[in-house]
Fold this sequence. Notes:
By secondary structure, this protein is mainly beta. The chain has helices at residues 5-24, 119-122, and strands at 33-34, 41-46, 55-60, 66-71, 77-83, 91-93, 100-101, 106-109, 124-131, 134-140, 145-148, 155-165, 168-176, 185-191, 201-206, 211-218.
Amino acid sequence: xxxxxxxxxxxxxxxxxxxxxxxxxxxxxxxxxxxxxxxxxxxxxxxxxxxxxxxxxxxxxxxxxxxxxxxxxxxxxxxxxxxxxxxxxxxxxxxxxxxxxxxxxxxxxxxxxxxxxxxxxxxxxxxxxxxxxxxxxxxxxxxxxxxxxxxxxxxxxxxxxxxxxxxxxxxxxxxxxxxxxxxxxxxxxxxxxxxxxxxxxxxxxxxxxxxxxxxxxxx
Length: 219
């Protein structure tokens, strides 16, 4: 017995629905990133073990923004976990391919919190090293605009935002002539950290795949 046209149409609709559910897997496959909550402040942390430490810094803003930076042996950012606000999800850079749950073996809060940076307070000329024999010169104006120095081969430009982020300032950055490891366009934070002295501030930015980690010194 042949199915009626109406029955065939209903069967095709049901099969299409089942196929769509199978493709979607019935849920969201985006990896979940979990990082411990620390009260506002700046911390030295160990995300490894006593025998095999993975050292880094944890920046916690009063607005709920958070930034965990894990270092390599040269104390440069190797992995980064960030959250823009209390109700936002954590993001891993480089992007996580599976669920991540960070456990801190230890966390030591900086005894005296650094004063929150301001646009006017950071106005000036700076130099930062990107790699051996590779330096970038740039200036920050009182309105937050960041401009490359004329003598610098690596051109950094962008803008700092007065809006706080992880206890620092948000920054949007563009780069050219800085090498393939530096993202052409990135978002991140300018952080004043007493542990980084004599550097005036630390600039941490990413494009979701690659990291830029600079210590800026007053020129």
